[in-house]
Amino acid sequence: MQRLFEKLVGEFEHGRMNRRQLVTGLMAAAAGSAPAAAAEGGFKAVTVNHISYQVADYRRTRDFYVGLLGMRPEKDDGKQCYLYFGNENSHLLARNARNGGPTPRVDHIAYTIETWDKNAVEAELRRRGLEPRPDTENSFHVKDPDGFDLQISGKEMGKL
User: Percentage of the chain surpassing pLDDT 90?
Assistant: First the structure.
């Protein structure tokens, strides 16, 4: 338990967590249930950045979500388009299936994390044995424990 307290205080002292996160982590540790992110140096997801759909006909999917849920289509290139909803960055990415893959399917889900430092994020993902694959300057792909494609992104990824 002492090592956990020292780790949490060290994270705070090095600016990797704010005071509220420190107090929450210390309280949880004292109660015997430290949150995994605080105890293991993880990230804090703040929103779903996007969900990538591979579909048979992206236009049909686009029209369905625009008509039913009022999503705003952007970046339509004839093969895919972004369907924005909610906050300015959340979107569904409807795209025609690539490489003859099965349809329909969720290709991947991207989560935006609270703070983005490309080198620090890559180092943490590698420390966890996740083999990050760079996608943009603001994102990496990894596999979750069940083999699903997970994209970890900064707040600037995918902005209009």
Answer: 46
